[in-house]
Amino acid sequence: MEQTAVVVAVSRSGTHTFSKYNAEAIRLLTGLGVEGDAHMGVTVKHRSRVARDPSRPNLRQVHLIHEELHDDLRAAGFAVRAGDMGENVTTRGVDLLGLPTGTLLRLGDTAVVEITGLRNPCLQIDAFQDGLMKAVLGREENGGLIRKAGVMGIVVSGGEVRPGDSIGVELPAGPHHRLEQV
């Protein structure tokens, strides 16, 4: 039986905290991100990126993590729950890391997020829980780095997103491009 892709939790934080707070709903604003979230905006909001060039486009308006990662981390002894690693949308039943760049995720009735790339976990993750950084990174057979800490996207169509909402996946026209860090 095929598993239905679903939103498990939604989270936001109005300040630059590592973890985000669970909410009953979040509103995605076209071209901006999550209403009331510190990372909302047309240009970059992540502190290290602002320091380098505050005029760069914000390709990290929405952070999504698959709950299957939380399952794996809990099995490895970490205490994590939705929002703890800074994600806005926690999903189940969709292989976020396997999607190509430009994939559209339809969240609920109207919201659409275009996947722009992989989240690059930073050292704050170990400050949250010691050893967590290593747990969300892996190595390919050829030695290449595997980033497991979710994907980033931009809002192409706004709307309200709630836990329990379905997720539709629309792949871009080929050729497909593997996700890179953003």
From TrEMBL:
Pfam family, one: MOSC
GO molecular function, one term: pyridoxal phosphate binding
SUPFAM superfamilies to which the protein is assigned, alphabetical: PK beta-barrel domain-like
Coiled coil spans: none
Segments forming domain MOSC: 21-170
InterPro entries: MoCF_Sase_C, MOSC_domain, Pyrv_Knase-like_insert_dom_sf
Name of the protein in question: MOSC domain-containing protein
Species of origin: Planotetraspora thailandica
